[in-house]
Design brief:
The chain starts with 7 loop residues before the first helix and ends with a strand. It contains one helix and 13 strands. The protein is mainly β.
């Protein structure tokens, strides 16, 4: 009879099954160790009821503090302001018209012309205190420039002509013309360069011209007497704008001068003559003027 050895696979399977069975049997046997004691019952500690959450409203710009120490969390509620009402902006105001540089301002070039009335009064320093007065018209023309802030410097010519003279010392009227003329260096100051009030002062040479025969029928060439001296003037005026550079107004001025000459009312013809060795004297002349002026400035 032919016997074969069992296959190794069968032997291994039988051995694995025996070992598994033996391990399960040992696990079910009681052990000699002490039984485990049950854990003691732990009483739960009473807990405080949680505080209700606190509602705090803060501006959005403040920082939010962090939760620390196990305290109840602080609830932060951010309330945003209502959105602004959007409306159309009002239209811009109309632009203010720009004034051209120099317009309606006393600056730059200066030209003044004036016409009006005036008078001439002469008084000598003789013991008799002879005097002569006459009235007539006045003229003026001046050129200059603005130095700064309405302050003008320049030169001018002024004149007052009187066609009827009266000698007060003798109490009689005489024929002839007496004229006052001056070539002056002047200063004219406008208090406000955009306004019209101004004050002026001047110094310069002055002269008296006397013509005993002014009429056409009796006038003789070369019979005029001219006496010279030095003097000045003060004046105040006001002007109003009639254009960007032109202004019109009025001016009151007082001129005076010291003239080297003789006033002799006893002379038949020549009331005024130059001083000589025997009759050296000085004549004080005054010539007020009230003028209508036109100024380009």
């Amino acid at each position: 009879m032919d016997y074969r050895l069992p296959s190794p696979l069968i032997v291994g399977s039988v051995l694995f099954g025996w070992l598994l069975f033996d391990g399960l049997a040992m696990a079910q046997q009681p052990t000699d160790s002490e039984p485990l004691q049950p854990l003691p019952a732990v009483q739960p500690e009473p807990q405080q009821p949680a505080a209700p959450p606190t509602v705090v409203v803060v501006p959005p710009t403040q920082p939010v503090p962090s939760n620390a120490g196990g305290q109840p969390s602080t609830v932060y509620v951010y309330e945003l302001p209502p959105p602004p009402a959007y409306t159309l902006p009002p239209p811009p105001p109309p632009p203010i018209p720009k004034k051209e540089a120099g317009a309606y301002t006393h600056d730059g070039f200066y030209l003044r012309m004036g016409i009006g009335i005036g008078a001439v009064g002469l008084t000598d320093d003789s013991p008799e205190n002879n005097s002569l007065s006459a009235g007539g018209g006045g003229l003026e023309i001046g050129l200059g420039g603005t130095v700064e802030n309405g302050f003008v410097l320049g030169g001018r010519v002024i004149g007052v002509g009187a066609n009827v003279a009266r000698v007060d010392a003798e109490g009689k009227k005489v024929s002839g013309n007496v004229s006052y003329a001056a070539l002056q260096f002047f200063a004219d100051w406008y208090v406000d360069p955009e306004s019209g009030l101004h004050f002026e002062g001047a110094l310069g040479t002055a002269g008296i011209i006397y013509d005993p025969t002014p009429s056409r029928r009796t006038d003789r060439e070369g019979d005029e007497v001219t006496l010279g001296g030095f003097g000045g003037s003060l004046g105040v005026g006001w002007e109003g704008w009639v254009g960007e550079e032109w202004s019109l107004g009025g001016l009151l001025r007082l001129n005076w001068a010291w003239i080297d000459g003789v006033l002799d009312p006893s002379a038949p013809v020549y009331l005024l003559r130059e001083s000589g060795n025997d009759d050296n004297s000085t004549i004080f002349a005054v010539a007020p003027m009230l003028m209508f002026t036109a100024t380009l400035h």
